[in-house]
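Open question from group meeting: does this chain pack into something compact, or does most of it stay loose? Before anyone orders reagents, we agreed to write out a predicted structure and look at it together. Recording both the input and the output here so the notebook holds the full record.
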Amino acid sequence: MKNTIVARINPILNFFYIGLFKFLNIGSKYILVGYLIRILGENGYGVLTWVDSIVQYFIMLINFGFDLYAAKYVVENKNNPQKLNEVISSIYYIKSILFLICFLFLIPLSFNTQINIYLNLILLMLILGIGEVLMPIWFFQGIEKMKSVTILTFVTKTLLILLTVFFIKNTFDLNLYIVFLVITNVFWGIFGFLKMKNEIQFEFISISKTTLIKYLREGYLFFIGKVSTFIFNMGTLFIIGYFYSKGNVAGFDIAIKIVFVFIIPFEVLQQAIYPRFVRGINKLVVKKILIYSLVISTIIAIFTYIFSEKILQIFGGVTMIKYNFILPLVLPLIPIVSTTIILGNCIMVAKGFYKEYNRSLIVTALIFVLLIFILRILDNLSIMNIIYVRVLADIILLSIRFYYCIKYRLI
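Structure tokens returned:
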């Protein structure tokens, strides 16, 4: 009886800590956005966001999709210490190698005039990769123990906020802010690794080249899928910043951050119930989750539309109100992305439909790139059209995943 009660309580606690983890991660960003955009100005903040849009591609390479599917390995092998050591060691070796490779990619990028101007900032921010290599969120998600990660996140994010408020005082402090960002992220990764090591008495073991290649091959499709996601996510920021002012980047970033703060509950739901989906869950429950997610997210989008100008002012200040035309354009992403997350991560990935999951991302990214290319050729690459294409990309992604789920009777 006692074990049954514990079994019921653990998922609820895990859901709570994942939610709190997401809230701290995103909430701290919004606090910092509100402060930084007022101190650095929309141009300075735009530069920071644009540089970050480039660095995130390197972070994506480092993670190599492990953040999407490595939790499945942990769920399947958490009672097998030898196999778990193999999995964890392999992931750390691969991520470390990929981190070093990132610096090589900076060489060809340095020949681009626009990128070369900010190369020192890109190089500095890339050190964030150390924290990404070390922090095994996928491990804690797999064993359904997110409490320690949540506490660690709270400490490091609070430290970053305090350092920013006390030391970032004018537009010339952009470099100093990135230093603070890097330091706190590296500490986050180090302590996350140590906690994981103590949790299971983990020890690095020798891994054969064949085994490493096996994990790389299994992660390859997820990596391609992740690249595809970044193309129409971070790619939008990059394109706006490349062809237009960095102030426009700030305007779009504020709007998209407002949208994604309302998607947090659905990401939390996905991460919390993912292990349950891996073990199997009733289709009726799946349908209810989808319907409730769609209805609630739509109501949130409508509410945000009604108060869009006020919300934008709270997040970005009075100077950001001039970008109020952007927020209503991206609000449909709230119900679209929320539903897409459940269909993709909780259903397709959990049921082993990796190829279909990643194919949906690849096709969407190719369509996005093609449409942007056509607009450029036709000399019609306006900010409005870029945003329209960005929203259309997620509509296409949702449609493809819904098609696969119906085709294979997953819902």
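Observations to bring back to the group:
The radius of gyration is 21 Å.
Confidence is low (pLDDT under 50) at residues 1-9.
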